[in-house]
Amino acid sequence: MHILRNVLDQAQKNGVAVGHFNVSDLVLLKAVFAAAKKLNVPVIVGASEGEREFLGTRQLGALVRSIREESDFPIFLNADHTHSLPKAIEAAKAGFDSIVFDLSALPFEENVRQTKEAVEALKAINPAILIEGEIGDIGTGSEIHDKAPDLTRGLTSPEQAKQYVDATGIDILAPAVGNMHGMLKSMVHGEATKHLDIPRIAEIKKAVKTFITLHGGSATNDADFHKAIAAGINIIHINTELRVAWRRGLEEGLAKNPDEVVPYKILPSAVESVKQVVLSRLSLFNNKPPA
């Protein structure tokens, strides 16, 4: 039986990170699973509230569960950026392995109060579920931005992180450490990368002694990824890079088959395009040679 907490414990001991990749259709799910299986490393697939609404929360839960059971493979499902308790409860009842209960837009005290209540309610449904909380400002939207927002004022302090973890009882912390959701147009073309506050990550990890997630990982400098993992990052979220690869692969499939109308003959190009991105990221996060 594959248990997410055990996988994260082992990753931490091995000095690697578990890759988390958002999915909003079967193309993305097939690509993520194929890449993880090829490298034989655990993987988390995530779905935001919007992605779950499109796919169906219970349907996605059943699909990932069937893949894990039939393949006997450590693939896990996370309810990404969930902003209300009813939506979190829906995911917990659908069998999700973890939930990001994100009230980071609220004042700190209110975030703490509601997150603590959510942890208690969700653990009552499934004691094994992992609950992630978020503090700080990493922007919104896994999309392409014209310019970078100023997130320097929203960085998470070690003191605040410890207070938050101790007060809420969360299993995983998502701090703001220079990361940002989405990508800039210059990043799409490979002209720029994001840089992380590595000392801040190390200080937060020392203060909280719990699992830490890096959101907004797309287009982050490769060397920064290695340093962030060494400093204590356990899970790394990639979304926008996959969306860009999905679109490029789809355009390639349509260009190669301009008269084709059968979806399963057009979409393999999108699957392969996304798979290559996931292979690259999982290799990096797990210290494995490129596949």
From TrEMBL:
Binding site for Zn(2+) 2: 102, 134
Amino acids binding Zn(2+) 1: 81, 181, 215
Pfam families in UniProt: F_bP_aldolase (PF01116)
EC id: 4.1.2.13
MF terms (GO), sorted A to Z: fructose-bisphosphate aldolase activity; zinc ion binding
InterPro entries given in the database record: Aldolase_TIM (IPR013785), Class_II_FBP_aldolase (IPR050246), FBA_II (IPR000771)
Cofactor(s), names only, from the UniProt record: Zn(2+)
Keywords, in A-Z order: Lyase, Metal-binding, Zinc
Residues forming the catalytic site: 80
GO biological process: carbohydrate metabolic process
Protein origin, superkingdom: Bacteria
Cofactor info, note text: Binds 2 Zn(2+) ions per subunit. One is catalytic and the other provides a structural contribution.
Protein name in UniProt: Fructose-bisphosphate aldolase class II
Native organism: Tunturiibacter gelidiferens
